[in-house]
Structure formats: structure tokens, C-alpha cells
Amino acid sequence: MSEQHEQPQAPPGPDPELKRLEFFVGTWSMKGRTLDSSEDNVSGQTTFEWLPGGFFLQQRIELDFAGYPIKGLEVIGYDPSTGTFPSTVYASMMGMPIPYRYDVQGNEVTITTELGGGATFHGTVSEDGNSFKGGWRPDAGKEGAGNVAYDVSGTRVK
User: Fold this and answer.
1) How many C-beta atoms surround the C-beta of residue 138 within 10 A?
2) Closest among 134, 138, 133, 139 to 155, alpha carbons compared
3) DSSP summary character for residue 151
4) Which domains does the chain have, with CATH numbers?
5) From CA 82, how far away is CA 97, in angstroms rounded?
6) Residue 132 and residue 105: Cα distance in Å, rounded?
7) pTM to 2 decimals?
8) Which of 63, 108, 119, 123 has the CB geometry, 3.0–4.6 Å to 70, for a possible disulfide?
9) Is 135 helix (H, G, I), strand (E, B) or coil?
10) pLDDT means over runs of 10, the chain (158 residues)
């Protein structure tokens, strides 16, 4: 009598929708300005890479925001119930995780957060995928310290 051994079932792989984030992968140089400034006062660099397994995209960022240095780590996943990409940011400016949500439709990116009462980023990635531009705006009535409107652009450096 021969014994049959079942092959263990492989765990499911990453959701194919995560491919919508692929254009982020790489290192980006960024510059911009707060809306109250006549010159660029936001600059920095960010790097996106897939974590092992491909279920999450990691972003590491270093920014000079109007003279205030910010470093952070963000982990972005996928929520099939909403078709969006929830993320959590761990930043040097705050001692608590900050939730965000990305909506990526083609080359249009919208990012929202409830931090500071709420803010939204609207941006566009170039057709060749090597640059972007956009801006953060506080939600109506939520302007103020810690929730500053600014425009930013970026160029892929690798």
C-alpha cells in the first residue's frame, strides 16, 4: 500500500492590484514650496521599494520642510474591499503612527489623511513615469499649524 503525500498548498501571492504602485519604485528627488512662500522651501529625497513577499511597498523619506527636518518610514498595502492602498507613516515629527490612504487611477494619485483634521494630496505622474507634480491641501476649515498647504514636484533619480 503506497502512501500519498499531499503537497502543501502555497499561500496566496500579492494581490495583482498592487502593480498599480509599481511606478513609485525607485528613488525620487523632490522640491516644492508652501503656498505662503515665494521660493522653494521644501526639498528632499524619497525611496520606494517592495518588502520581501511583495505584499507591501515601503517608502523612506528625508525632507527639509521649511527648515524643519523630517525623516519617515511608510508602509503601503492594499485593501480589496475599497480598491485603495492604506498606509501607515512613522515620522520623526510625531510619536504616533499616521494613517494615510492612496487612490491610484492610471497616472492620477490621491492621498488622504485625517491628521490635523484632514488633508488631501492630488498629483499626476508623467507619462514616462519619471516625474510627478501635485499638492497637499488641508480639508476645508482644517487649515493651520501642522496642516500646511504646499506644492511639490519630483524627479526619479534611480
Assistant:
1) 18
2) 133
3) E
4) 16-156 (2.40.128.20)
5) 21
6) 14
7) 0.88
8) 63
9) strand
10) 67 92 96 95 98 97 95 97 96 91 96 88 96 94 76 96
